[in-house]
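Posting this for the archive.
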Amino acid sequence: MANNGLKAFKSGAWYMVANFLIAGSSFLTTPIFTRILSQEQYGLFNNFTSWQSILAILFTFNVAASLISARYDYENDLDKYIFSVLNLSAVSVLVWTIILNLFSDWAQRFFSLDIRYLNLMMAYIFFLRVFEMFQIKQRYFFQYRLQVSLSILSALSSLALALFLVTHMEDRLSGRIYGYTLPTIALGAGIYLCFFAKGRGLRLDYWKYALKICLPYIPHLLSMTVLASTDRIMITKICGSRDTALYSLAYTCGALMGILVDSVNTAFSPWLAERLHVNDVKSVRGFSKYYISAFACVSFGAMLVAPEILYVLGGKRYLAAIYVMPPVAMGCLCQFLYTMFVNIEQIKRKTVGMAAASAAAALMNYILNLLFIPRFGYIAAAYTTLAGYLLLLALHMLLVRRMGMADVYSYSFVICTVLVAGVVMMIVNAAYSTTAVRYILVLCYLSALLAFAVKKRKMIVDLVRLVMSKQ
């Protein structure tokens, strides 16, 4: 058990490192793409990725989610199971590709994308699912070296190819999309052939098994993806691709914070499960306050330096998007907070309310977008998404309370954190108009962090030693 725990820690640590290397490389190349591509092209590319994230769930059934139980139920026949359920996704994607091509005129208008990009998207979402299935299998068996290596290779080759194509092709949007999709398609095709060699054959009972597990999760996953992606799609349709470019660049920073949420949660959730298993609520409640405070500080810092971040990433053309950053950063904080409550629901297997909460937030976000984007423009979309995350946080807090586990976290501390974040968001928004005032706020922020670090230096040193320890 101890050996497995060490393997799990090392696997999770390397997975987090890989995530940040991939995100960092993407973040560092963003200034290049925003300067080479026109705002319209950059906006259309983000429209492409938004639709891709939604259609991947609908068209592939998210079959990789079934592997968590199939690894035990079909332990001796796992490769055949994987190959069979991947073919379920393949059939679905193929059918939808045919439908899209039969009604290509309608599809192009609806998605605001050329049919050739839609066809490329269909291939990409299937082979991306193949690659994800491989990653999950490797992770379950703690074989992180190959998985991490291929993940980094895929990301870096995608960025390198995209940079080459956008600088050598006349149609730079095509170059960006081809660079984004082709390396994953090639890598996924190779992995698919490996699965074919190991798991030849097709069993429809495996399809039934996978669908029984995956279909109930689709509403939840789809709602969360719609909540994160629908803004850019609706901005493209209502305001145009240039406004989508401004909004998307601001959300790039939010995406980095989202990766931070996912990464730290891979370490926090197993620890939380262990503490709850031995009924050590006191430790969780005490640690969670520092945990929440740390992420809140990250959010406040992102708000304060938004103009500098946007200038580096996109130049003067994108500085108008600074007013998107405060609600985006606060939205990421709310996302972080509700994930803590979702962890409890998942650990206790009380997931019935998750889909309903996600669907309610996505529906509210869609309605608010329809009402406010035409009236106030793309900036309104950041606030409607924040409203969706606030609703999710409130609903998940209510669900955990109804489970009788409201004592795990301090509800008053969570609510105070949200209220403070709201006040900081309004202050920073007002400070954007006066650079001197904002720099004074940055100085106060850094001074407060330094004072806290000095006061809690022993705790910080002990925490670093604990993380670095192999025990």
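The first helix runs from residue 2 to 36. The mean pLDDT is 86.
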